[in-house]
Amino acid sequence: MFIALLLTSTRTCVSTRMSCLHEAEVHVCIVILSKMEKGKKTLGEKLKGSEVRGRVNGHHQENDMENLSLFEIIKLGKSATQSVVDDWIESYKTDRDPALLELINFFIHCSGCKGVCVSEMFRHMQNSEIIRKMTEEFDEDSGDYPLAMAGPVWKKFKLSLCEFIAVLVRQCQYSIIYDEYMMDTVISLLTGLSDSQVRAFRHTSTLAAMKLMTALVNVALNLSINLDNTQRQYETERNKSIGKRANERLELLLQKRKELQENQDEIENMMNAIFKGVFIHRYRDVIAEIRVVCIEEIGMWMKMYSEAFLNDSYLKYVGWTMYDKQGEVRLKCLTALQGLYYSRELNARLELFTSRFKDRIVSMTLDKEYDVAVQAVKLLTLALQSNDEVLTAEDCESVYHLVYSAHRPVAVAAGEFLYKKLFSHHGPEDEGRPRRGRQCLNANLIRTTVLFFLESELHEHGAYLVDSLWDCASELLKDWESMISLLLDEPYPGEEALTDAQEAALIEIMLCAVRQTCECHPPIGRGPGKRVLTAKEKKTQLDDRTKITETFAVALPLLLAKYSVDPEKVTNLLQFPQYFDLEIYTTGRLEKHLDALLRQVRDVVEKHTEKDVLEACSMTFHALCNEDFTIYNRVDIVRSQILDEQVDKFHRLLEDILQEGEEPDEDDAYQVLSTLKRITAFHNAHDLTKWDLFTSNYKLLNSGLQNGDMPEQIVAHALQCTHYVILWHLAKVSEGSASKAFTILCDALLIFSYQIVASGREALEPLVFSPDASLQSELLNFILDHVFVDQDEDSSTDDEADKIEALHRRRNLLAAFCKLIIYNVVDMKTGADIFKQYMRYYNDYGDIIKETMSKARQIDKIQCAKTLILSLQQLFNEMLSDLGCNFDRSASAFCGIKELARRFSLTFGLDQVKTREAIAMLHKDGIEFAFKEPSPQGEGGPPLNLAFLDILSEFSSKLLRQDKKTVHLYLERFMTFQMALQRDDCWLPLISYRNSLQVGADDDTLSVISGMSSRSSARSRRSKQPAASKRKLPEGTCESSCSSSDVSMWVNREQSGPHTPVMMSSPHIVSTVLRDTKKLCPEQGYMGVYSMSNETQHTPLQQPSQVAWMMAQKQQQERASLQYGKMRGHIQHTIRRGSGLMEDDEEPIVEDVMMSSEERLDDLNEGMDFETMDIDLPPSKNRRERSELKPDYFDPASIMDDSVLNVSMF
Question: Any idea where the SCD domain is (predicted)?
């Protein structure tokens, strides 16, 4: 009954107002009325049970969407905004308080607040009290809120929020917006939220308020248009004669005008409230994102409703904000102004603003933010289009020089400004100009370009100028005929001819334009470089290249003949053939022009001795001597004639000098030098091996060395020519000899490394060469492709002798590269790709890799440890790419990596003090790698590389007890509370690694001797010796070494050199072996290697502790002397049995090719010729003779030899 009465009253109200409504309003009312009638059966059902609505595309969803809030519906983005707004309007018309409460909660939830404004709060509390209540319930633990969160979901949410506000105002513009309830409440709420101290509230409400303002401006604009139309209709009707005038229509139009005027006044009041309550305060907010929102929207208002907003009262805010400290705010100001300056109609209203802020805009062209500078130049270009006199000459000059900027977008924008200013104005006198020739319009513009290029005084940057103008003036720069006409044709009467400087500048610009056309990429230093061309661009490139060839094939010989004596012009002209399509010479029947070109180039070679000119001639012949084209024979004949003449002349002059045996006179020296220059320039690009220049240059240099009277320039060019001879011989090395070339290259890098300046040879420092990253990568790739291959793949025969020979060659290659690692010629991290092959190719290269790791550890323990862990990480990543993230940890690939980690762990030996810092750094890198990548399963899942901790646990036994605690503390930095509670199988690596850092801490053994004796006695099946050399650390020591200050020392430090600082303070008392005085220098001692904090170093031990420690030392020495004999027997027995750190490591049959060949075993290597250089390493020994070597961590026997056993234990 209530619904029926409501519909009846609504229908009556609508019919009463229908007479004074616009036709569109009538239609909207009818639509709303029909919706209400259709929905009267389900209206109670929609509101039943809750105030929350859930409609998608006008239809209820049965489950998920049924009870979603308005915020969740907009966030999901599955509903059409129009349908969501229509549903809310229908709900508002039914009961406006619950609907408005839902809208309030929508804005609160959009801010990231979890609080809910209930109906009781809405009825009895002011907006300020509601905001205060919501602020108290706001979760400030995280600074993220929807507008500040990254990702496509939240980016789409922001767009959906803005669209919702715009559609809401558009749908309510005829009725609800004027009810003095909904808009007043929303504006009051947003104004209060925008003044909050909470950034999320302030940012979200400012965005909502500004979008609401933009929607209201659109409504006001429509009202203004309707009001003008109504006023015009009213004036038209009133001006009719009395007999034709319709008084009823006049009254209706008058009533409509009055209503529209009232609505417009009300909209203006709303806009004023938002502008003064929100914009005035927030356009200078401390948060740059909020300021950006304000400036972006005010630009929209001025562009949409210029009659109301495009005045100085609003423009001043944009002008002031151009001085903002944040680049994004300044950028938004410029883009907002561009929309205004783009329209010629709006330009007239910007004169005062332009005069006030022009200097600021000009200065912004040099902004430190490139994006801001680009937009500033574009804004000045738009201002220039509207009024050519708005910028002074000084203003324009400050923009002109930006065409030479290294940042291409800035340069292109400046090029467009230059083109608009200098080239886009055509007078009436230009209409009758010819299209080609010296008097065409383009010829005049080319002259202007040349004058600008010369006045800029940056002649070496012609390519930059051309690239800057390319996007806007490419047609001008491709007018080759006009350029050639300016250079070759005689000037017309009264026309000023080009000066010598202008001709040189025009040739350079023409060359740069040809290069840009053919290469289709910016010059070096500007832009990302080459890119993939589209099919259309490729076709345009081919067409342009054909046109260039047809044009310059005819003109180039004439240009060379005219400017043959000018080195600068000739050098540029000789570069044009590099961009020719040589096929055109044949298809276009241009052979006679080719002959003319070759004659001119030959004349240039004979006339000039400048290096640049001769190299340009050489490159011209190199470009034309292409065997793929039919012109090759024609060009090759001319080239051979030139070289025959020069070589014969050189031989003749050389014989004269050698026969005289005296110092050559000035004329002879000049002839020899000029001939050598020509030969050297051609030898750079052409193979002159058949002329045997090496012998001639050797004779010349030998004569100068014996007599000491050879001019320095002749010696320099003779050496350079000899250098090219050697390079051409190397270039002829066939693919089958690639291994030899690789070995030679490695030896050359080793010779010219930093060691060349050792022993007082500092004068050779200029010869030091360090390979860059690209060369190191190529060397490593060669090793990976040619060494680490299976024998079946590498050998094409089944002959065992051939297989052994091939293996020997591969070992030589690997040894040559490993030398570079050992001698620091290449970065040690390149060894990671070598070390990871240790298990797979142990039989072939195990000894080489093992010795490389040993020597690398002697160079830098920490860097070696980082390289080992890097190799394991590479294998782990390869396994992930092959098996996926859901691999089985029992897979052979994972087990192989874990076994390799175990082998690596054994190589660190038993002296944990010596390897303490390296092991700690290894764990640090491993932990960071394990938690580096997020979980592919989303939040709550294990990190992608978490299983790597299972591999890392193989190194836990090498940690000291106090270091285990430190590493465990560092591990907990990456763990969350939820991770510590997980017990699923996927978290087992983390559990096992944590256990490895906690279990067995009391059994740490710090003594090398005690570790070796216990290990050898266990293998010999004998009873365990008394642990004389084992002693637990005092509790105070452990606690002090694991202090938070010590943890931060190594966890948070950065490496500043090849040797990383220590990870933590050393304990007061440690049980370690006392080495011989002559073998242990003070700077190599434990206290010198592991620095301690001042407090730890200077705090003395308590007296009872000192006495107890001294007594314990004495007792241990007595027990050690008694056990010495037995332990020595055990150790020597162990040596004879060949047991050691690597239980499975058996030396391969093939001897180490990295060692010298002295005392070599009579094995398969006997009689082989080692091509590679020998490293200065200890000579190779068999197991019985290794007792004389120093400890080698890769040899189980030598680590416990006599040199160690001769040292007293305590």
Answer: 279-364
Q: Which pair of structure tokens corresponds to residue 833? A: 């790709």
Question: Which residue intervals of 95-240 are DSSP H helices?
Answer: 96-110, 119-124, 127-136, 152-172, 182-194, 199-238
**Helices 393-400 & 351-363 angle (0-180, nearest 10):** 40
Tell me the Ramachandran region of residue 1025: left when phi exceeds 0, alpha when psi lies from -120 to 50, beta otherwise: beta
Per-residue model confidence (pLDDT) at position 143: 65
Instruction: Write a three-state SS string for 731-795.
Output: HCCCHHHHHHHHHHHHHHHHHCCHHHHCCCCHHHHHHCCCCCHHHHHHHHHHHHHHCCCCHHHHC
SS (H, E, C) 518-557: HHCCCCCCCCCCCCCCCHHHHHHHHHHHHHHHHHHHHHHH
DSSP per position, 562-575: HSTT-HHHHHHHTT
674 token code pair? 């000029």
Token representation of residue 485: 């006409």
- Residue that has been written with the tokens 């000009």 in this structure: 362
Alpha-carbon distances, residue 794 vs 262, 804, 817, 1203 (angstroms): 92, 11, 19, 44
Instruction: Please state the pTM of the whole predicted model.
Output: 0.61
Distance of alpha carbon 447 from alpha carbon 502, whole angstroms: 8
Per-residue pLDDT reduced to its tens digit, 639-687: 999 999 999 999 998 888 887 766 677 888 899 999 999 999 999 999 9
The whole-chain average pLDDT of the chain stands at 76
Task: Give dist(CA 600, CA 654) in Å, integer.
Answer: 28
Q: Kindly state the DSSP code that residue 55 receives in the 8-state scheme.
A: E
Query: What's the pLDDT band for 744 if we cut at 50, 70, 90?
Result: confident
For the residues 918-946, what does the mean pLDDT come to?
Answer: 87
As a whole number of angstroms, the distance between CA 671 and CA 653 comes to: 8
* Ranges 167-181, 339-353, 403-417, 1011-1025: which has the least confidence: 1011-1025
CA–CA distance, 797 with 800 (Å, rounded to integer): 8
Of 511, 618, 517, nearest to 559 by C-alpha is: 511
pLDDT tens digits, 444-500: 889 999 999 998 876 678 899 999 999 999 999 999 999 999 999 888 877 888 999
Query: Which helix (H) or strand (E) is 701 found in, with range?
Result: helix 693-707
Contact criterion met (CB below 8 Å) for 552 and 596: no
- Gap between the Cα atoms of 864 and 618, Å rounded: 49
Each as own residue / partner, the long-range contacts of residues 1167-1171 (CB below 8 Å, 24 or more positions apart, any chain) are 1168/808, 1170/812, 1171/740, 1171/743, 1171/812
Six-digit token pair at 267?
């909209």
C-alpha–C-alpha distance, residues 351 and 346, integer Å: 10
Identify the pLDDT of residue 329.
96
Q: How far apart are CA 495 and CA 662, in angstroms?
A: 60
Q: How many of the other CB atoms lie within 10 Å of CB of 1159? A: 12
State both tokens at 449.
């370009």
- Ramachandran assignment for 55, one of left (phi > 0), alpha (psi -120 to 50 degrees), beta (any other): beta
pLDDT digits (tens, 9 = 90+) for 391-437: 899 999 999 999 999 999 999 999 999 999 887 765 555 555 665 66
Region 1063-1075 average pLDDT: 31
- What residues contact residue 168 under an 8 Å CB cut-off, 6+ apart? 85, 88, 215
Report which secondary-structure segment, H or E, holds 870: helix 861-883
Rounded (to 5) percent helix, strand, coil in the chain: 70, 0, 30
Structure tokens given for 488: 């070759």
Confidence label for 1031 from pLDDT (cuts 50, 70 and 90): very low
Whole-number CA gyration radius for the chain: 43
Task: Kindly report the number of other CB atoms within 10 A of residue 997's CB atom.
Answer: 21
Helix (H) or strand (E) holding 483: helix 480-488
Would you state the pLDDT for residue 150? 84
Nearest CA to 1201 out of 1184, 1187, 1189 is that of: 1187
